[in-house]
Amino acid sequence: MLTRPDPPTGRPGKPGGGRSHRVREALLGLLLLTPGLVGLGVFVVFPLFQAVYLSTRDNDILGNPTRSVGLAHFAELLTPEFGALLARTFLFTALVVVPGVLLPLAIAAPLTQKLPGMRIFRTAFALPFAYSASAASVVWLIMLNPGTSPVNWLLGLVGVQAPSWTSDPGWALVTVAAVTVWSVSGFNLLVLAAGLAQVDEDVLEAARIDGATGPRQFVSIVLPMISPSLFFAVVTTTLTALQALGQVHIMTDGGPNGSTSTLVYSIFDRAFHNNNSDYGLASAQGLVLLVVGVLLAAVQFGVLERRVHYR
Amino acid sequence: MSTATRSRLNRPGPVPTALTYLWLGVAAVVLLFPVLLTVVGGFLPSSALLHQPPRLFGGDWTLDNYAEAWNQPVVPLAPAFANSLFVGLVIMAGHLVTSCLAGYALVFLRTPLRTPLFWLFLATIMVPYESIVVPNALFVRSLGLGDNRLSLVLPFLANGFGVFLLRQAFQQFPRELREAAVIDGCGHLRFLFTILLPSCRPALTALAVWSFLQGWNMYFWPLIIASGDNSMNTLQSAVFALKNNEGASPAVLLAGISITLIPTLLLVVFGQRWLVRGFTAGAVK
User: Fold this and answer.
1) Is B124 buried (19+), middle (13-18) or exposed (0-12) by CB count in 10 A?
2) What protein family is recorded (chain A) (predicted)?
3) Is the Cβ of A116 closer than 8 Å to some Cβ of chain B?
4) Where in chain B is the domain with CATH 1.10.3720.10?
């Protein structure tokens, strides 16, 4: 995915440009890079170092760092509670990524057939993409509100007693994950449909003539051909799940009993929620999030991307 | 093989076709009911939504919920709408300007250190925003901007993904054209604005749409930087506040949500091409 930066192409400036010209060009280049570098330097690179500093400090009520506490905040992360929080974060991510990619794939695949109405279906199935996390959460709270829930009503028709979606500790995380799956399904559908549209008809025909049909054709020919889109969907969905806050905050507020408290929710909770201001611990958790994110990306790019077939 | 034979080969038989429509129909009912509920529910009297299941059809349609959602004094939606527009548009402009300039310097100029600088831009994509939100919040609060909207956008004006996307797009520009322009005496900025950018319109549109959505849908930052009164709410934090205050009336909530969905629904219905083509082209190829 990340193409290696090209070797200096030595794109010529003015042919035969002299030394002063090259200096001017270098200065112009640095000048043009300045806005981006300043913006990212001040608000991404520098805060990273500051997060490391804050993670070793206590702070007063205004957030000013006070005495050094060494690695005490990180020691607080070596507890079973934080282990459970991390495990819950990974479980949530898996509960979002697997169905969040497979469901749109199962919808996008039949949409490639040349049948009437497929364009309308595609536009319709993309609609959840329009929902922000907070809009999706509030609509689904109404969908699941006991007493009026159309979901519970439907389950009742087939004789299933609906659980308390957001207030049963055994269901809350699944419920929030399902709403997240719903809200990523629109974008992933568009991505996968775009990938499927590129599949070469001639190759499929050759396979058909060789006797490959149906599921076998899909698994051994179509899937490899759309692997770049699949990989893109997996990576972006992983990031969305790992960074989900709105759904958790609005639907369950981390509860019941902390059963939906994920890493990002915990950062928000410790640092800003209910007038908390535990900036040191939140910064330490933020660094854990950074490491988790980088490791997940390394695994995805190191393991999955090897199997991606780029044309 | 002629197109006619080919399309006949692709046409599935009647049974698979029926199964296809059945599956798509079931999926549509399940996945799109919330959308129907949002759009229709906002026009229904509250009583229709207190039924199980909600009575979406056959009732009296009303605009009262929209009026109430818009006019209720607890969480004013008009300033929140203005704030969200401001955030989306300013972040979009910021990303476009910083990424165009940086992309140009990385591709077309013999800028010193351009390879390590490009890797630096890429590396910033890897930093989850939540990892640095604490120091950023402390810093922006310390600037004493108070209720100035600038504090909603300040950390997001530059973006590594934008630089990456436009660098990829600029590299596709034919080298010979660029050399011809230079020989004709076309200066750097003129080349950038009159030749390069118009030819990279798909990538620019994709970045613009992506950036706008980033700003429009942002949740964490407005929530913590706007705490206090409601004047700095964006629509996203307003929806949350509205839910806490108007919990009793789902119809008003749905009307409020429909208002937040206006620009994004328009984009999804009419702008799908831009949404996907542009940045899958950058990231997938």
Assistant:
1) buried
2) Belongs to the binding-protein-dependent transport system permease family.
3) no
4) 76-284
Give the pLDDT score at A2.
44
**Which pLDDT band holds residue A276 (cuts at 50, 70, 90)?**
confident
For the domain B76-284, what is the CATH code? 1.10.3720.10
Cβ burial of A302 (10 Å; 0-12, 13-18, 19+) is exposed
Q: Give the closest of A38, A44, A130 to B264, CB-based.
A: A130
Which of A134, A158, A188, A295 to probe the B interface (max B CBs under 10 A)? A134
Positive or negative, the CA dihedral B222, B224, B229, B230 is positive
Q: What is the CATH number of the domain that holds A115?
A: 1.10.3720.10
**Cα–Cα distance measured from residue B229 to residue B41, given in angstroms and rounded to the nearest whole number:** 29
Q: What are phi and psi of B117, to 5 degrees?
A: -65, -35
Q: What is the DSSP letter of A7?
A: P
Which two structure tokens, joined as six digits, stand for B234? 């964006």
Kindly list the distances between the CA atom of residue A118 and the CA atoms of A109, A113, B27, B183, in Å, as whole numbers in the listed order: 11, 8, 13, 50
B141 φ/ψ angles, rounded to the nearest 5 degrees: -65, -35
Task: Look at residue A1 in the predicted model and tell me its pLDDT.
Answer: 41
**Do residue A236 and residue A301 come from a single domain?**
yes
| Residue A13 belongs to a domain | no
Half-sphere exposure at residue B87, Cβ-oriented, CA atoms within 13 angstroms: 29
- Say how many residues make up chain A: 311
Q: Which residue carries 């500093």 as its tokens?
A: A53
Render pLDDT for B179-201 as a digit per residue (tens, 0 to 9).
888 888 888 888 888 888 888 88
Q: A295 with A148, same domain?
A: yes
For residues B78 and B235, the answer to whether their CB atoms sit within 8 Å is: no
Number of domain units in chain A:
2
Residues A68 and A155 in one domain: no
In a shared domain, residues A85 and A172: yes
Whether residue A91 is found in the same domain as residue A40: no
The range of the structural domain enclosing residue A106 comes to 77-307
* Three-state DSSP state, B104: helix
- Distance of CA A111 to CAs A25, A37, A119, B278, Å? 51, 43, 8, 21
Same domain, A191 and A45: no
Asked which of A57, A73, A89 is the last residue of a domain, the reply is A73
Nearest CB to A33 within list B52, B110, B111:
B111
- What would the DSSP string read from start to end of B215-244? HHH--HHHHHHS-SSSTT--HHHHHHHHHH
Residue at a domain's end among A53, A73, A93 = A73
Q: ipTM, 2 decimals?
A: 0.85
Report the candidate in A199, A230, A227 with the shortest Cα–Cα distance to residue A104.
A230
Note whether A46 and A181 are same-domain residues.
Answer: no
CA distance B274 to chain A (A): 11
Phi-psi region of A247 (alpha: psi -120 to 50; beta: other; left: phi over 0): alpha
Chain A residue with minimum CA distance to B95: A36
The sign of the dihedral angle between the CA atoms of A184, B264, A111, A202 is: negative
